[in-house]
């Protein structure tokens, strides 16, 4: 059963959401590791977490970009660690760096992902390309989840957020390797959520990372939250990739 965590309101940073004026609370002293945080959604997540009082470890293979983001956020807020998520020792080092520097890990964001060259015909797809995508997109999430759980279980709390894709809900919009990896992430997330719930650790697939990292979302776990403007609702099996 998912353990219920108390809200430590004296330590919380609050902000107003645009639409309803509802306060979202995120602890000022929360510590997050974000893979793929040197650019794209990962960078945006790192910047947003930092803005809301969290301290972030950016784990990425793009050293120059990652260090630049950390420099912009400031040394008190952000640190960079070189990390190839398909290598377990690299992932372990990122987690250890966070714990050694800040004493804990509250949030793990598994964002790092790649895509293979677009080839709509499966006969043209290469096994090596397929395996490389899976090694980053799926194995990387597995390793990030495994090592984050190892750090979170002793404290009986934490949030693991895996970045999914609408390609896990709609066929024909991405490559076979990318789509397969994102489908698998949903299954892995739900399986791990069932296991880690008793430790108060939540596992989610989402792009709404700020909310899922906050105490406001403590009742949400094992959920695949589609942030797609309703695309998967109104366009099932649209087949855009196959038409390219």
TrEMBL record:
GO MF, any single term: oxidoreductase activity
PROSITE patterns registered for this protein in UniProt: ADH_SHORT
Key words, A-Z: Oxidoreductase
InterPro entries in the record: NAD(P)-bd_dom_sf, Sc_DH/Rdtase_CS, SDR_fam
Top-level taxon in the UniProt lineage: Eukaryota
Matching Pfam families: adh_short (PF00106), adh_short_C2 (PF13561)
Family the UniProt entry places it in: Belongs to the short-chain dehydrogenases/reductases (SDR) family.
The protein's name in its UniProt record: Uncharacterized protein
Species in which this protein is naturally found: Corymbia citriodora subsp. variegata
